[in-house]
Predict the structure.
Amino acid sequence: MPPADAPGRGSAVLTVSEVAVQFGGVSALSEVSLAVHPGTVTGLIGPNGAGKTTLFNVISGLQAPGRGTVHLFNTDVTTMKPHRRARLGLARTFQRLELFGSLTAGENVRVGLESTVRWWEWRRLRRLVPHRRGADGAGDAPESLATVTCERLLEGVGLDGLGDRQAASMSTGLARMVELARALAIGPKLLLLDEPGSGLDEAESAGLGRLLAELAAGGMAVLLVEHDMDLVMRICDHIYVLDFGDIIASGTPDEVRNDPMVQAAYLGQAPSTPAPVPGAATQAGDGGDP
Amino acid sequence: MSSFLQYTVFGVMYGAGYAISATGLVVTYTTSGVFNFAQGAVGMIAAFCYWDLVTVHHVPILVALALILVVGASISGALVERVLMRRLHGASAERPVMVTLGLLVILTGYATVTWSATTQHLVGYMVNGQFTLVGINIQYQELLIIGVAIAVAIGLRLLFYSTRTGVGLRAVVDDPELLAMSGASPNRMSQYGWILGFVMAALAGVLLAPVQTTGLNIEAFTLLVVNGYAAAIIGRLKSIPITFVAAIAIGVAQNYVINYLLPHLPQSLVPDVTLALPMLFLFIALVTLPSVRLRAVGRLTTMRVPRVAGGRESLIVGVLFYLVCIVAAVLFDNKAVDGTTVLTLGGVVMTLGIVGLSLVLLTGYSGQVSLCQFSFMGIGAFVMGKIAGGGSLFGLVAATVICAAVGALVALPTIRLRDLYLALATFAFADAMAQGVFLDTHIYGSGGVSVGRIIIPGLSFGGDGAEFLLVTAFFVLAAWMVLAIRRSLFGRRLVALNDSQAAYATVGLNIGITKVTVFAIAAGMAGLAGALYGTVQQVVGTSDFDIFPSIIFVLFVTIWSIRTVTGAFLAAVTYVAISQIWMNGLGIFAGLGIILIGRAAGGILGIEAIQVRLPWVKRARADSGEIPTPPLGRATVVPGGTRAAG
């Protein structure tokens, strides 16, 4: 089956076609197809064990599919190594945090930033640029381009002034933002976010929603796995629903919300009950995929 | 034809012995996730105990077997799991490797001080007699080994797939928490695994002991079951049937090579190739393994990260250290300990310090384990000795470059595999080099390799003091370089690689290139250290670069702190000091040390109670307003997302 088409502002940056993954006798993904377009936020929802993280692993190259293909920016990347996919413009975060815990938050971001620069260009990152630290101008001093860029990225995810904290000592919510900043540091065109809202409070979650909307408005494609249904319904342009390794529905948030199969499989209501009211925070699921 | 069959029977017999040990290794690994490097040493101890009981004390064979297998091996396996391994649950990957290596050197150290090397330890057959079948003579002892191996394989298969305990044993590594919820005790299952592993190692030892026609030898017998390592690797550390078949195949292949291939080689090479064969098989097994996929493990180190000195600070400390060494050179000039000048010993400390620094870079920063740094030292010393009369600066450069290239070649086959396999590859390389090169009088010379003192026009390094200061200068430069690397982009990448390989790859960084690069740099540093070691000692011997000293030194650095320059230096000092006092006790010290430090990933210098007493640590913390983190030794690694709010 060709990937279901999602509304977008151009040709798909990611096309997953009939991908299947088998773990022993268990089918984690069977014939999954989807497409993600630039300038959109695409949701991928489903109950625990539906195969969402496995699909992310297939897209980012951590898991080889048994069947099917993955195309990134019109290039077949099905057998390509993860680091080469990243260099094409794919970045991701992880459901279970994968931080560089021994490094500071700033260094985490810097590793991402430096990965985009070839060794003969490293000096460019050390070039001094003007750096304005506060509204009053106190503490202004020229800093290296790398330092300034990392600080800006951390500020962008709400981690102002926390660049010197060891990543392993940060709370889950802050650590997720460090992961996000690190992913953004490589300048991705496609961003895969695996439950970025987990561990965030209501205000932080709202801030995350605004940030993702801004990124999409800037032309980035975002594929979002999230159990916070309020966030998903609010910011996604298109949603795929995964259940037992199959895409059981896809469409706009309204279409998905009113789909009886989705309600039965995931949102927790019988097909006959009314659809949930948008705006009411709904946490569907709380655990991990295989 | 009959000789072919005879060789085949011999091969099957040895293969059966390897199979028993290898399946034990697989059982331990599948139930605890730990590769027991001490498996061969357990077999060696069991073999010597058997010799002691049966040959010396005339204990009946069955009683001796019961004492060794049922009492000794079982209790030892249970104790090792309870006292050592259980504490390592959740620790970073290299800790269990270090602890089992500690066990290995303790057991070999104990054997060295207990059983005299001058006595020939010949062990009689358990069952005497032979019979002839299609023209070949088969000893009942050989038949016994093959029969026991088959019985063990069938027994294990039945245990794992037909009993509730067996299901628990298979489940414990996959998900201990889930197993606990089903009512089984993960700890008990793991303990059963260790008991089984020890019993099988001991069984292999006592069965193979009588067929050692030249008698038992501690090192040779410990490494004899390395063929079992290769079989276990081919079985991917999880399949008992594949492991079993692979062990038999290796045993047979070994006999064919010895009997058919070696006679066609120059006579001088025969002993080397024979001794290096097990390691060759292990290396081939590693190279042929399929790639493993990267896993997002969701583990996060919460270990306190040692502070990295800044550029100016490391320069000042380096200069002060050098000034202290100048004073020491004046004070200890012409002083000697047991016939060796203090400054020569100081020079040895500095060269070993450089090896320690290479381990800081390789293991401390990037998390890769190398057990063959002394082999690179040996190559470095050899190159230094053979180039331009042995005292040339060009020799130092050549030693560094050649060792870096060899290091890259050693690391290359294993970059697509798990880090454990790099440790195994370096283990194989270290032993193959020791047996095939360093002990070969045709290559290394019967009296060792002569290396002259460095010659720089206008400067003389003929005296011990001048040589000591020259080597010290190299140590200071190497320390400064390691710290500079840690502060650099490459240093951040090494630490990042150590913390999360999945994240490392998904930000666009090539894991393979980074691993090979850091391994090559570390090998180059060890090669430089070897060249300098040669210039200090002036003659380097065949036993200087053996596998066991190499492992013991890795443990010394780990005990002090494998993440710090200070740890590398203190490791070198204590290694040289203890080797002067009690050479045979080095392994016991190292083993006990690593076991006592347990899971403190930061070593002695990383222990909170010690850190808070160090004035420079206190000052640095006060300056940064740092909040104390939980002491080391507790929760080194936690699952992502379950940490306390910070």
Observations:
- Chain A touches chain B through 49 residues (CB under 8 Å).
- Residues 270-290 of chain A have pLDDT under 50 and may be disordered.
